[in-house]
Amino acid sequence: MANQLQGAVRSLLTPVAKRVLLTWEKLESGISFDLTSSRIRANPYEIYERLRRDDPVHRMRLINAWSLTGYEDAQTILQDHKRFSSGDNKLEYAPYRTMLDLDPPDHTRLRGLVSKAFTPRAVAALGPRVEQIVEELLNDLAGKKRFDLISEFAYPLPVIVIAEMLGIPARDRDRFNVWSNDIALAVEPVLTNAEIARVKRASDEIVAYFEEIIAQRRDRPEDDMLSALLAAEEEGDKLTHDELIGTLMLLLVAGNETTRSLIGNGMLALLKNPAQLQRLRDRPELLDSAIDELLRYDSPVQFIIRVVMEETEFKGRRLRAGQKMMILVGAANRDPAVFTAPNELDIGRREKSHISFGRGIHYCLGSPLALLEARAAFAGLLERFSSIRLLSDPEYRNQIVLRGVEDLWVEVEQ
Asked: Could you say which architecture CATH assigns to the domain 1-413?
């Protein structure tokens, strides 16, 4: 999950003030980037293209940050955590820090603890269970000609997986989904007061829930990640209680939101590019490269935020300490200097890799699990249904950092 801007723009920013800031921005650079626009949130790629062409290092006056659209620029920033930090970037509305808003040595310590659950061997061991969950979800769809692929497949798959890894009772999975959806709003740089209230309420509720589960595990440890993290917390110098809570919250949201959107966005892209869908059916050995291309084409995480640590110059721009750098992942993944025909879906693409999982020390820890789940999901869908057809164009959620469709209604033949 991407880092965030501290201090989201509230609804207190009046329409007049917003127009003034956007006009100022346009006068400076010839272009303005309105993150609150529903049109841009539905399709940000047009504005990305204009920014990349006209002002690749762009001052965003609405949120007082710099945006970057180029692939190489994005890599430079993401791999230089000393000048462009994740530290001092804690969510204003989240009660606990996570490893996403930490730099070494704290980041190294926390990542080392959690990474044991995401080693290639550990993830591979989850393969049979993930495939079983996919099969069970598809069996529940037996006989249905039409269904919402998000609510009945893409959502429950990662929720079940991460809940089982953490040792969360099956009866609580629906609560997890509600909490995850609300807490995920906190990564957005522009929030209304109502959305802020949802984040705070969900955070309070999930912290209370985790405290209860932690108390149970202290008395009766089980073979799950929560018990393993609790053992590390008891050693004192490895994990504090607040870090334990923050890590659990991060695993919930990151393990649910991004994988669900990878499956939803990816399936939508294939359905809108039927030649590529048929190509994948004809050549299932392309599945891994197809998933990489789907991540590039419409990334679930569109922005990653870093903080400038010291005054520096970057591409002719004077950056001051404390300013925010917004790396537009979705734009970098469609940089024509790196990708041929970047706005076209090509499941056999062999060019440089996407940056949807980030770069550097904050490269997505859960990426092996996300890829495993996506592989099982797409393989299962294509094997079970001889035909999948899009019934209507879905709407994207009203978010710009975490990009995903609200629903995905399809008609199938089994």
From this structure: Orthogonal Bundle (1.10)
